[in-house]
Amino acid sequence: MKKITFSLFIFFYSLNFFSQDLEMVDKVMLSYQEPKSIEDLAERINYDFKTDIEKVRAIFKWMCLNIEYNTPSNKTLKSPELIYYFSEDDLKRTHVRMQEEVIYNVFNKRKAVCLGYTQLFSRLCNLMHIENELIYGYTKRSVNKIGYIPNRKNHAWNAVKINNKWLLIDVTYGAGYLYKGVWQKQTNLDYFDAKKEKLRITHFPTSKKWQKYLKQKPLKEFCYEPFYQNAYLKYRIKIIKPNIGEITINKEDNILLKIKKIKNIDNIKYLFSHENKLRTARIKNDDFSTNIFFKNPKKDTSLHIYIKNELALEYKIKTE
Q: Residue 269 in contact with residue 282, Cβ under 8 Å?
């Protein structure tokens, strides 16, 4: 018993120490001087920090603070340019040149879309000899995209290997968010060493390797799910029904959401996008589940569900 207690103490002490180390890194990066080049930035980070986890956190923090999202008109990754080449070596040189242009444009202009974020992040890791991979795939960006199966990749993120463990990092999501088409800079540390269960409901990698790593469901199932938000994970919501994100009802029935019973949750509110009016849901508990009732919107709309004033779930509503 003493051995178990001691082991647990060491485990939690290590977690706390690890967290404090990264907080120190964040504070240092807030006052970092302007680097002259990508190589200069890598050299300074490599000199200032000892461990790989500290160096990777420093890269993440610097990029969140200094690279602004360049709002594109098209929300997919650009189609490859038409390339003329005379040999395989010529093609490789052209690809390298194009990638170099992306990386240096991001650094010099301080603006990027997801591909630019990931490539600059990867370059900095490479300069510090930290093993990393770029991951390409899809993300659901809004409730309106429920049921839409993309035919082109629309996102990219990173993985780094530290102490034989892969860490998933999304600098684009970590750097801020778009609000009504305007970039809001706000560092979100949830996307540094992001939890698998979080990325599993928002990110779909095209690589079989990373699908297996995330234990990801098939693409169609991913695309048809409700639009999950932070409170969904925070309050450990488990949906019984409906499991698909588009609810079809007639104009007489109310909407029912049935979830596994959760304790101490009696404040559930909702709004329909066409009304923008916050309402209180009716809740009925039985032995094993919680039934949540919402009024009939009488028209096609989207339903936004809040738990303790935090957005948890979004559904697309179709009326017959």
A: no
Is 162 within 8 Å of 150 (Cβ atoms)? Answer: no
Q: Are residues 210 and 270 in the same domain?
A: no
CATH number of the domain enclosing 98:
3.10.620
Q: Secondary structure of the chain: what % helix, strand, coil (to 5)?
A: 40, 25, 35
Q: Give the count of domains, the chain.
A: 2
Residue 85 region by backbone torsions, left for phi larger than 0, else alpha for psi between -120 and 50, else beta? beta
d(CA 168, CA 161): 9
Residue 9 covered by a domain: no
- Residue 89 is assigned to a structural domain of this protein: yes
254-287: pLDDT as tens digits: 999 999 988 778 889 999 999 989 999 999 998 8
Domain stops at, among 208, 224, 240: 224
**Per-residue CA distances from 184 to 70, 151, 165, 180 (Å):** 11, 29, 32, 10
Cβ neighbours for 46, distance < 8 A, ≥ 6 positions apart = 55, 127, 128
Q: How does residue 6 score in pLDDT terms, banded at 50, 70 and 90? A: very low
Residue 141 in any domain: the answer is: yes
Q: Which of 200, 195, 292 is nearest to 240 (CA)?
A: 292
- Per-residue pLDDT tens for 178-231? 877 788 999 999 999 999 999 999 999 999 999 999 999 999 999 999 999 989
pTM confidence score: 0.83
> Before 150, cis peptide (omega within 30)?
no
Q: Tell me: do 169 and 239 sit in the same domain.
A: no
Nearest alpha carbon to residue 100 among 78, 82, 116: 116
